[in-house]
Amino acid sequence: MVELMEKASAWTDVYLDRFALRKGADIKSAAFIFTSWAVWDYCLNHDCLPKGNDVAAEYIASTFVYSGFDSKIDIAEFFDVFKSRFKIFKSDIKGLLNSDYPRTKQYLPFGIYCTIYKNQLSLEPTAGVDLHDNETSAELIEFTDSFIKYWNMLIADLENSF
Fold first, then answer.
1. Which of 40, 73, 94, 120 could form a disulfide with 30 if both were Cys (CB 3.0 to 4.6 A apart)?
2. How many domains does the chain have?
3. Neighbours of 49 (CB within 10 A)
């Protein structure tokens, strides 16, 4: 489990250093949650998770501690946040992979953007965020362009690591 957390932590640092629109403690924590999910999802789909009955619960608990949100919410709330993120992340990544971005710009990962930059601990991170606001819309396009580069680098590294 430590190896997976270290991988997620290292790639969170890459995101913050090279791809983040803004920096801050909550953005770092939210980016870590996304990256932790990406490592988990990759390992789950490629059968390279540690074996055991409580692997998922242990992984989410480790993500909670490593994320830095442990001083803001309790572990039970975090489990709910992580589960809600799982659906958002999976849906947005699937949308990006099925689109022809950036040529058509037909899919923007609004959910991932909101979980990192707008409502980091909300169960509904897109609530109250106006997609049609000019500033939000421009930032979302900028986020998507850099996020795709980050995602491709992360997946390439995971393929070489596991």
1. 120
2. 1
3. 18
Give me the tens of pLDDT residue by residue for the chain, a chain 162 residues long. Answer: 899 999 999 999 999 999 999 999 999 999 999 999 999 999 999 999 877 779 999 999 999 999 998 888 999 999 999 999 999 999 999 998 888 766 666 788 999 999 999 999 999 999 999 988 998 999 999 999 999 999 999 999 999 998
Q: SS3 letters for the chain? A: CHHHHHHHHHHHHHHHHHHCCCCCHHHHHHHHHHHHHHHHHHHHHCCCCCCCCCHHHHHHHHHHHHHCHHHCCCHHHHHHHHHHHHHHHHHHHHHHHHCCCCCCCCCCCHHHHHHHHCCCCCCCCCCCCCCCCHHHHHHHHHHHHHHHHHHHHHHHHHHHHC
52 dihedral zone (left: phi>0; alpha: psi -120 to 50; beta): left
Residue whose pair of structure tokens reads 């390439």 in the numeric block: 156
What pTM does this model have? 0.92
Written as six digits, the tokens of 81 are: 């946040």
CA distance 23 to 116: 10
